[in-house]
Amino acid sequence: MTVRRATAADFGAIAGLWREFDHEIPPPTHEGPADPDKELAEIAEILEAEIAFVALDDDLKPVGFALARERAPGFGTLTDLFVDREDRRSGVGTELMREVLTAFRERGIEQLDLEVVASNAGARSLYARWGLRDEVVIMTGSIEDLEARLGRQEASSFGSIHIQTDNVSAVELAVRQFVPRLPGGSRGSLLAPPRNGWIGVYDDVCDRNPDMLRRLARELSDRMGSVTLLLGVERDELLRMILFERGRIVDEYLSVPEFYGPLPPGDVVGLAANPRVVSRLTGADSETVRRIAVTASTPADLPPARELLVELAGAMGIAGGEHGFGDAPEISDALRIERG
C-alpha cells in the first residue's frame, strides 16, 4: 500500500470513492441529501489548492483518500477521510491521517477539527482511538415532534414521603414544625394513617418543588430517627426515589441520571438503585426492584414515569405512593393539616 499526494489527475478516482461513501453513510437528517455537483466541485478545489492524499494498493488501485484545508491561521479541517470497505482495518486510514498531520505541521497548523455523522459508528470509534474528542454536538429534531412537545401543558412534578413508623402523633408534630420553614407557602399537608408500617406525608409546596420534597424528607428522617422514603415524579418524565436513615441518604435512584445535564461517571452509577439496600430497608424483593428501577439516557427509553412509580411503590408495600398532595384526598382517613 502506498500513500502519496493527490493531484487534479486523481479527480476521477477520488470522485468514484466519494460516491461509494455517499451511498454508504446516510446524510444527516438536518441537512438532507448531499448535492453531488457541489461536493465534487469542492473536491476539485481541494485537489487544486489545498491538502489531498490518495492511498493505492499493490496494484496501484486507489482504495482511499483524505482531503483537508486550512480554515484559519493555525487551524485546519479534515474535510474527508474514506477507505473502501475491502481495505479497512489494514491501517490505510491511519497512514492517510499521518500524511495529513505532516502537511498541517508544515503549514504551521496546530489544531484540527472534523465532522462525522452520529450514525457512522466505525469512524467515530477510530477518531476516538486517535484521541479526538467531542467539542460541539449538533442536535436535531423534526418541527412536528418539537411542536407537539412544546405545545403540551407545562410539565408537573409531585411526590410523597413515607416514614417507617406507626406513631402518627410524632409525625404530625414534626410536619407542623418543619413545613412552615419551607419557602413557597404551603397551603396544607396530609398524613395518611399507617399502612404496612408506613405513614404517608403529602404537602402542597413539596408537590410543586422537588427540592422542598427532598428537604422535608431529610428533616423528618432526622427528627424521627426512622427509615424515610421519598417517591416523586419530576417534570412528568423522571422517577426519583431516595431512602433516608436518621437524616442521611443511604440510597438514591433517578430513572434518567443525566436528564438535567452531564454527570461524572461515578455520579451516574450512584443514581442507580441499590436493590440490596432497598430490600433491607423496605422488605421489597431485590430482584423485583432491580427489574423496575432501571435507568436510561432519555425518558423515551423507559416506561412512563408514573407507571414506574406505581410498580416501585407496590414492590415496597407503599400504599398511596402513586399520589401527590393534589390527589391525596382520595386516600381515606387522611389527616389534613390546614394552613393559611
Number of DSSP helical runs: 12
> How many β strands by DSSP?
12
**Helicity range of the residues?**
25-40%
Indicate the overall shape.
elongated
What order do the helices and strands follow? Answer: EHHEEEHEHHEHEEHHEEEHHHHE
Rg result: 30 Å
Beginning-to-end CA distance, first to last residue: 83 Å
Q: Give the helix/strand class.
A: alpha+beta
Our count of domains comes out at 2
The proportion of residues in beta strands is 15-25%
In spatial order, strands of the major sheet run 11-10-9-6-8-7-12
For the sheet with most strands, the description reads: 7 strands, antiparallel
Task: Characterize the structure shown.
The chain folds into two domains: 2-130, Aminopeptidase (3-Layer(aba) Sandwich), CATH 3.40.630; 158-338. 36% of the residues lie in helices and 24% in strands. It has helices at 11-24, 36-49, 92-106, 121-130, 143-150, 168-178, 204-208, 210-224, 265-270, 275-282, 286-292, 305-315; strands at 2-5, 51-56, 62-72, 75-83, 111-114, 158-163, 188-195, 198-203, 227-234, 238-245, 248-254, 335-338. The strands form two sheets. A seven-stranded antiparallel beta sheet has the order 11-10-9-6-8-7-12, with helices on both faces. A five-stranded mixed beta sheet has the order 1-2-3-4-5, with helices on both faces. The longest helix has 15 residues, at 92-106. The N and C termini lie far apart (83 Å). The mean pLDDT is 89.
